[in-house]
Amino acid sequence: MRQLIAGLLVALCPVVGMAQDSGLTTLETADQTRGWEGVGRIDIAGRGFCTGALIAPDLVLTAAHCLFDPDSQTAYAPEDFRFLAGWRNGRAVAYRGVRQAVAHPSYLYIGPQNVAGVPYDLALLQLDQPIRLASVQPFGVGADPGIADKVEVVSYAFDRADSPSLQESCQVLGPQPGMTVFSCSVDFGSSGAPIFSLQSGLPEIVSVVSSKAEIDGHPVALGVQINQPLQELRAALDPTAPGPKVGAKVQSAMPQIGIGSTGSGAKFVKP
């Protein structure tokens, strides 16, 4: 696995693309979505969307590359984002604007063949108003998963933009420095989706979807190991300062959607 990841080709893009799903259950009814209402769709300037999850009444965890406009190569303004908690069949449990959007201070993206930014592909959206509803509970954050651990992912994507989907049969395939490879099925729009581990029957976020991938013809997902980066990201969040925030090391250039391959048989794109 270490040799496999060494030659990644990554393309960042939160907007929609063709989907190819496996083992996914669409959450279409109130019973099916119960407990998952804290996962929502993040609409971005009317151009596309990512997935995000509440980790506090006013904080949504998502992927850092969702914060940038692929055309202007600059950060979107906070008012360009809208969080639709529990979005399902044209309605959300709660609708919120965004007061502040913060990427991890060490997030780095310098081109389609660069993978250095993936371990820091993490962002927080501070909502303009907290969501304080009994039906919409923030998720806890758990420890980074180990090899062969079972995980679940809840996400939106190109052909499931109007309802979230749950995949319960994911598995950790192997860790790399700052990132983990999962057997989860993700696609464009799934960027920032929470990857969960069940602890005492309760879901805890153990990773965030950064990339989709293909290894020897099998779809996988690349996720951020979030514990240390999330602590650093929280420290970078300034509740008194409106406006988009990115760290000094951030480069926001985003290429066209693309899929590349290496001699290892791996293909990677940002969903």
CATH homologous superfamily assignment: Trypsin-like serine proteases
What level of helicity do the residues show? under 10%
Round the mean pLDDT to the nearest integer and report it: 79
Given as residue ranges, the uncertain stretches (5+ residues, pLDDT < 50) are 1-21, 246-268
Q: Largest beta sheet: what is the strand line-up? A: 9-10-11-14-13-12
N-to-C span: 21 Å
If helices are DSSP runs of H or I spanning 4 or more residues, what is the number of helices? 3
**What is the CATH topology descriptor?**
Thrombin, subunit H
Q: State the CATH class.
A: Mainly Beta
Q: Tell me which CATH architecture applies here.
A: Beta Barrel
How many distinct beta strands? 16
What is the global morphology? globular
Question: Main sheet, how many strands, which sense, barrel?
Answer: 6 strands, antiparallel, barrel
Q: Topology as H/E string? A: HEHEEEEEEEEEEEEEHEE
- Assign the structural class, choosing from mainly alpha, mainly beta, alpha/beta, alpha+beta, or little secondary structure: mainly beta
Instruction: Tally the structural domains.
Output: 1
Q: Roughly how many Å is the radius of gyration?
A: 17 Å
Q: Per DSSP, what share of the residues sits in E-state strands of 2 or more residues?
A: 35-45%
